[in-house]
Amino acid sequence: MSVQPQPTHLSDDEQVTRANGTGRVPVLFIHGLWLLPSSWDRWGPVFAEAGYAPMCPGWPDDPDTVAEAFAEPEVFAHKTVGRVADHYAALIGKLDRKPVVIGHSFGGLLTQIVAGRGLAAASVAIDSAPFRGVLPLPISALRAASPVLGNPANRHRAVPLTYEQFHYSFANAVSNEEAKELFETFAVPAAGARCSRRRPPTSTRGPRPR
Question: How far apart are alpha carbons 69 and 138 in whole angstroms?
């Protein structure tokens, strides 16, 4: 398996303009913690071939690349749920047609928030993080959140994952070789303040390149 290089992503406004120009139903992908929009790169072509207009906008102030994310991890540190949800709501408001919204992990929680505001034509939450107050959480969820929960001070920091933590939470269904490639290609720090509400995601593989 070979992980394809991350493409240069269009800005949010450029993606809106492109989606509106197609006249197709937009499909808006929302990534979760410890990832960037590039984690959806392999899904966009699949939906484009099916007749949709795929969009992969980031969270507010997301860096463009993994290298930039590690060079300035503080950009992740203080983002709130409300700010991120409002960011996507404002973006959807610029579209000519209501989008299908698909989110993974914490992106699944944001997908539900957007759907709850009546902004989605349809929504898919993949292994969604739970809302506040959803108890009890399984042991696996607590283990996945341990990079933050292990140190209360992490609530005010951007927290990276080790390879072992990424493999457990994101790539436990693939070989070590593939998991390491995915880790090196996609993993970035994440805001610590929200990790206690998330559930462990599955795999970031998506469709294999053709």
Answer: 30
